[in-house]
């Protein structure tokens, strides 16, 4: 897998990947999410390719206090081959290079497989409550 920065020509393939991986929700427009990411730290919007095919993605960020990762996806045909681990290792290296002291990841509590994936990468559950409030409605 080659990891590189997202290109506009990747948009359709990335959205299809997110849909295939069950990451999209009716209240989040993936096109708008991509547009928003391209306005802030676009160099942290990464894709993984195999034979020029987009088969992985991740949106990372760093606010000067904590790093984050959203939309980490690996196409089901490529899961279990270490690509998710490799993409996370790449993100951790990039964020550490920016001086990021800690990476926080939000995972739906019902997504047991993904929680297990992150546990396998030495991520542990923090004793926090995640709160949210929509400021912009996409739907």
Please give the CATH architecture: 3-Layer(aba) Sandwich
Query: Which geometry do the CA atoms define?
Result: globular
Strand runs, count: 5
CATH topology: Aminopeptidase
Percent helix: 25-40%
Strand neighbour order, sheet with most strands: 1-2-3-4-5
What's the gyration radius in Å?
15 Å
**SS summary, helix count:** 4
Distance between the amino and carboxyl termini: 34 Å
> What is the overall pLDDT average?
94
Helical/strand content category: alpha+beta
Looking at this structure, what is the CATH superfamily? Gcn5-related N-acetyltransferase (GNAT)
**Major β-sheet annotation:** 5 strands, mixed
| Topology pattern, helix = H, strand = E | EHHEEEHEH
CATH C-level: Alpha Beta
What percent strand? 15-25%
Please indicate the count of domains.
1
Indicate the low-confidence ranges by residue numbers: none
Task: Report on this structure.
With 139 residues, this protein is an alpha+beta fold. It has a single domain (2-119), classed as Aminopeptidase. It has four helices and five strands, in the order E-H-H-E-E-E-H-E-H. A five-stranded mixed β-sheet has the order 1-2-3-4-5. Helix 3 (83-97) links the parallel strand 4 (67-74) and strand 5. The protein is globular and about 40 Å long. The mean pLDDT is 94.
Helix-strand layout with pairing:
Elements: E1 2-5, H1 11-20, H2 30-39, E2 45-50, E3 53-62, E4 67-74, H3 83-97, E5 103-105, H4 112-119
Parallel strand pairs: 4-5
Antiparallel strand pairs: 1-2, 2-3, 3-4
